[in-house]
UniProtKB/TrEMBL annotation:
Protein name, entry field: Mutanase
Origin species: Lachnellula occidentalis
GO molecular function, one term: glucan endo-1,3-alpha-glucosidase activity
Amino acid sequence: MRVSGFLPLFSVAASFFNVIDARAVFAHYLVYILFFSSGIEDANIMVPQVGTITDAHALQDINDAIAMNLDAFALNVADPSASYVAPALSSLFSHAKDRGFKLFLSMDLSAKGGGALSDYDYILNDYATAGAWFAGPNGKPMVSTFSAAAYTPADFQTWRASNDVYFMPDFDGTAGYYDAADAWWTAWGGVVDGLFSWESTWPNVGATNDGDLTLDTTVLAGAVAHGKSYMIGLSLLQYKDAYSTNIYRRGELTIAKRMENILQMNPAPLYVEIQTWGHYIGNLWTEANSDAQPAVYATQRGASHTGIQPLLTQFISAFKNLKTSFPASTSPVGAIWYKTILQSTTCPDNSLGGFYSAPSGASVGSDTINWAVVLPTNGASYTIQFVSNGAVAGSVAGKAGFQYGVVNLSANQQFMKIVDAAGTVQYSTGLGRCVSATCWDDIYNYNPQVLGLEQGDHSSVGCWQMTQQARAANGATDGPFYPSGI
Ligand SMILES: *[C@@H]1O[C@H](CO)[C@@H](O)[C@H](O)[C@H]1NC(C)=O
């Protein structure tokens, strides 16, 4: 029997069912730039933001999350006294309760900017017992963090003494954490119920070890040895060109390999959290971001990532059902993702540096269609075909369950199709932005197009291209966006 990294205190027979029930998948959700598993802010710089969300959009995000089979949002709150936090929480908790969805607090201690941990207490006081707070395996309200910042174990002990929670922080910036060092456990072990690692989710800047779980495996083993649980991160990539940061941590096959590897972990994590910071899977609400720089590359209209959701739903179902690989789907599910400039593209304002220079780590980007699919039990009767710039770029025999890969691309349209034994295109990707050798956005835009499979043959939709560089007063362009009329 595969067991979770969480060591149950109950009898073996009872714990088997408890452990199955306990597995859950969350999405990090920013309450100071409210993007559903988005994140375009810098972890270390407090930036004034609108940070608001309409009540209707809070409900939409929750409905979308339920449709994906997510269990909860980890609500990232930096300054809990900021004017937009309480209204946003009110909308989210109200709709979550109505819809049977769960939420929990993730204290963004890096962005909080100091002050007492007890500043967050009003959130727990108002909502922990109001019916929508996610409970940890001990039945207590779960609380996570981004970072330990400069808070000490004693600070957390004091905070915990008046907040009876299930505490699953991200303390991965503390000395010895990724080594599961004895000294780390001596210092911090008494503070935590479980561990969540943030930075291990992506290859380092400039690295290509897509999907590598080595760091997580070490920390998880330490957690298991100390009777604690583990939450593992999952993310498509990390690209951020805003707030004085310009980095690329590889997308390519990171999420595909990581999903496959996570299912095979033994001991396994109890929870998965789909992360933000340079990635998003849900709606980008315009009221939630007032900053021009991220709006150049991350907009719902120009670079929606919702096409990845059906693939994530297959993973969520497999993870929660203790599967060691993706089961066959009921119908073909999948997506492609690719960036819209070539590695050889140079941008006209490169010499200005900063926002306009290539991101750190750009050299490990690739000119590829990155793809993953889950096929039904008759998967072997399908062929997965790729078309780039109108030419066949690859063809792969289908099989039941999960498969993924990369195909070299040329500029213009990128397209994946699932073709049955009779040669009919049953599913294909839809409209996406063209790949171009021209730097239309005036920045090295490494944010990918994410195109999900849709029923039918959509090869005739072509691709859309930027047609202008509409420079705003602050020097940023207004792209990517659809040209009017599309
Ligand atoms: C894909 O591109 C890479 C990098 O240019 C090259 O090394 C590789 O041979 C190409 N693969 C195919 C199948 O053309």
